[in-house]
Specification:
This protein is mainly α. The chain is built from eleven helices and no strands. The termini are far apart.
Length: about 230
């Protein structure tokens, strides 16, 4: 990954197509790797450790950065993309979860909800505290980062509470909209019934259908009663 970034982006010794041919890879795969490599570079700059690529390996950060790369394609603006990067970088740095890849996927779950903007606002505020924790360029290494996390558990907990709150709001909103979704699905299914076929049904079939209709009417009456209470 580092070699790819150096050859294609930093020095431009090779184009993505030339690199793909030299490594027998699809150019689309090379471009995806370049995107992740760029995030790797940005993350190291974020933590005041530019060029210290070994930190990515030491702290096993490649997978969450790959997840972030996929998420950025779904952002609605450049500002939102930048806020998302700061959010994910802060959570990666503070080791908000033992499974960072899974934690980043939780953020992806929030992206599709109306609460994503509010979540990013909260994360941006906490990120300012995270940035203030970092020593200057030249003083950061893997051990310093581990110690930073150990010494600032409260900030990591704030980051985690923020995602939990956003997910809870989203789940409540989904539950609130579920009855309407079920009724719409039921209505759509009922509209597919061809009642002209009833003339060909025998008495037992018609009796069974009639009983089911009466049961549905009773259930709808009960729902209406609860709605109008």
């Amino acid at each position: 990954m580092v070699g790819l970034y150096h050859d294609v982006v930093e020095t431009q010794l090779l184009t993505p197509a030339e690199y793909a041919r030299s490594t027998n890879e699809k150019i689309s795969a090379v471009r995806k790797k370049i995107e992740v490599a760029q995030l790797m570079v940005e993350y190291l700059e974020f933590i005041n450790a530019p060029g210290q690529y070994h930190i990515i390996r030491d702290l096993q950060l490649l997978f969450p950065l790959e997840e972030l790369s996929r998420m950025l394609k779904k952002t609605q603006s450049n500002d939102e993309a930048e806020d998302l990067k700061v959010c994910v970088f802060s959570n990666i740095l503070m080791r908000t979860s033992n499974d960072l890849g899974r934690f980043v996927r939780k953020i992806k779950d929030v992206m599709s909800t109306p609460y994503f903007g509010q979540y990013l606002d909260e994360q941006r505020e906490i990120a300012e505290e995270v940035i203030d924790l970092l020593p200057p360029v030249g003083s950061v290494n893997s051990e310093v980062l581990r110690e930073t996390v150990k010494s600032n558990v409260a900030i990591a907990e704030s980051l985690e509470r923020s995602i939990t709150k956003a997910l809870t709001k989203a789940q409540k909103a989904e539950l609130a909209s579920r009855p309407l979704q079920i009724l719409e699905e039921a209505s759509n299914l009922l509209s597919t019934i061809d009642d002209s076929q009833f003339i060909d049904y025998n008495e037992d079939d018609l009796t069974a259908i009639s009983a089911r209709v009466e049961q549905l009417k009773s259930q709808l009456d009960d729902l209406m009663f609860e709605i109008e209470r």
